[in-house]
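Note to self: keep these together.
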Amino acid sequence: MYRFQTDGSPAELKTGWVQLIPDTGTSTPVGSGVFAYNPDNLLLSESGIPAATATTHARIYADLSGQYKTGLAIANVSGSGSGVNIQAFQTDGVTAAGTSNGPMLLSTNGYQAAFADEFVSGLPDGFTGVLDITSASPFAALTVRMLMEFGDKFVMTTFPIADVNQPAPSPVIFPRIADGDGYTTQFILLSPGGAASTTLRLYDQSGTPMGIEP
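Structure:
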């Protein structure tokens, strides 16, 4: 394995995206990233970044309830300029919510990141639902869910997108859950296509059903 890290030294925040291309004849590594917010060497928030694959149609979960905010980052990986359309729907995936701000134009290798209500205006207060993202050219995307607390303090976690062009794996496996002693686990399921009927089974370390009702 190999690890490298930026030093965080620039006074001005810089954001963007990364493309890693394996040399010809070598294997493609499995990658992940971690970004952390530690002003004055005090770690306030940290989250992992799953490596993404390109698609032309994706859906993400958006949560603007309470103190939560949902951010979306999109990178144009097509090698030419492209337009990205973003629409919002209620949790049923059909009922429109808000008004799309029109195609977002991304230059060659361009990148854009913003909160959900900046991509789609007029979202209802406390909105939770789905953002549907389409483009004629390939893009890579990532969702960031943030819980805003105490002014500039926040807790964040990242979500992969639901790639509408690819069938979801079956079965879906969550390798880690926690419940009790102050811990809770929230499951968020998105349908990349038609309606789905699922069965949720929870097991403890010994493989015994946990007896937790979702």
